[in-house]
Amino acid sequence: MNALIAAAQASLSVSLPPATTIVATLTAVMIAALLRGFTGFGFALAAVPLMGLFSTPAKAVPIAVLLQLLGGLNDLRRNHRDCHWWSLRWLIVGAVVGSPFGAMALSVAPAPVARIVIALITAVAVYVLGRGFTLDAVPSRLVTTGVGAVAGVFNGLAAMPGPPAVVYYMSGPFRAAAARASLLIFFLVTSIAAFTSIVMVGLATANVVWLSLLALPVMLFGTWIGEFGFRRSSGRLHRRVSIASLGGVALLSALKGFAELM
Predict the structure, then answer these.
(1) Measured between alpha carbons, how far is 222 from 92 in angstroms, rounded to an integer?
(2) How far from 134 is each of 8, 142, 158, 167, 242, CA to CA, in Å?
(3) What pLDDT digit, counting tens, does each position of 6-39 carry?
(4) From residue 16, how far is each of 6, 20, 24, 214, 258 by CA, in Å?
(5) What is the spatial distance between Cα 128 and Cα 208, in angstroms, rounded to a whole number?
(6) Which of 14, 61, 119, 250 to pair with 111, CA 20 to 30 A apart?
(7) What's this model's pTM, rounded to 2 decimal places?
């Protein structure tokens, strides 16, 4: 029995990441959770590049995906009534198809290239939202599924289904409450698909699980603070903060990626 206990303790000590990595991860998660709580999206968009400053995308992405999955389960009960289920259904179909292809690309992509891809994805979202792109009607089933497929590829590659889905809902004729709720539920479903793919390609390591469990309370607390601020702010401030935050994330990720290529 003593030998079994000693073996278990040794396994845990090996799996536990260094203290500096834990602190850095918790800090990145808190910043990303504040953004998620305030804007209704953007957790992975912020968390992956921020964690990428001290970790590889192959480690940062699984942590972001697992945290988004667990956080989404916590949000599901209060968001399912407000979401736009028709569009959400076809976005999910497309995302499930696209996500494994993104995960396969992640397993072989060099870290600097993945960081630059993350920056480009985020920059495109910033540009489209900043230009005030709008749609007069809800897109067709085929278009909605195609947007979902692109989001799925982004999800598997960089834990970032957000840009295509955010542009879809923020530019479409959706009520703010419906868009916000639909995005949160969409991120839950895509995180399930992405984490399944990540497990299949062997990226869900013990360190990933440890760091995710340690960071979960921080994520929930940061989301609560961000949502508290959202309920007391104007729609104009909400949009400005969202676009500025995404722009900052794109810049940080691009600088890190290009620095590693030099």
Answers:
(1) 27
(2) 56, 18, 26, 9, 17
(3) 433 444 444 566 788 888 899 999 999 998 888 8
(4) 15, 11, 14, 10, 31
(5) 33
(6) 14
(7) 0.74
Find the DSSP H helices in the chain.
Answer: 2-15, 19-39, 43-52, 57-79, 85-108, 111-130, 141-158, 162-171, 176-200, 206-231, 235-261
In angstroms, the CA 6 to CA 2 distance is 6
d(CA 247, CA 99) in angstroms, rounded, equals: 24
What are the tokens at 24?
């850095």
Rounded to a whole number of angstroms, the CA Rg of the chain reads: 18
- Amino acid, single-letter form, for residue 77: R
In the block, residue with structure tokens 């921020």: 50
Q: Distance between CA 103 and CA 203 in Å, rounded?
A: 9
What is the per-residue pLDDT across 144-194, written as a single tens digit (0 to 9) for each?
A: 999 999 888 887 776 677 788 888 888 888 887 788 889 889 988 888 877
Contact (CB, 8 A) for 187 and 162: yes
**Integer Cα distance of 47 and 66 in angstroms:** 12
